[in-house]
Amino acid sequence: MNATWQVQEAKNRFSEMIEQVLSVGPQVITRHGRPVVRVVAASSGADAPGVDEQPALLADGFTQYLLAIPRADDFQLPVRRSRKLAVVLGG
Fold first, then answer.
1. Is the CB of residue 41 less than 8 Å from the CB of residue 21?
2. 20: which residues sit within 8 A by CB, 6+ positions away?
3. N or C, which end of the chain has less CB nearby within 10 Å?
4. What confidence tens digit (pLDDT) does each residue in 10-64 have?
């Protein structure tokens, strides 16, 4: 279950919000009624009781985004050669 916190409430009750993240799951922070941040536990499920690692990683969306980015293992920047001629000064 995701809980929703207003920015000021999250600031004032930060420790409590962290406890909720660890025991219940991701928490959403809103600004002017719109969701702006999702707080998720950084530790694995073994370190955070009540948080199952795989669903938390898949539920945040950001992990899926990163995993969908094409890999660039063999990527090399092309060599860029200047077409400008050398300038000889004082000669």
1. yes
2. 3, 27
3. C
4. 999 999 999 999 999 899 999 999 999 999 888 644 444 554 555 555 556 777 7
Distance of CA 70 to the CA centre of its chain: 18
- DSSP states of the chain: --EEEEHHHHHHTHHHHHHHHHHT--EEEEETTEEEEEE--SS-TTTSTT--HHHHHHHTSHHHHHHHSPP-TT--PPP----PPPPP---
Q: 36 with 30: CB under 8 angstroms?
A: yes
CATH number of the domain at 64, please: 3.40.1620.10
* Residue 84 within a domain: no
Q: What is the pTM of this model?
A: 0.48
Structure confidence by residue, pLDDT tens digits, 38-50:
998 886 444 445 5
Sheet holding 27-31, edge to edge: 3-6, 27-31, 34-39
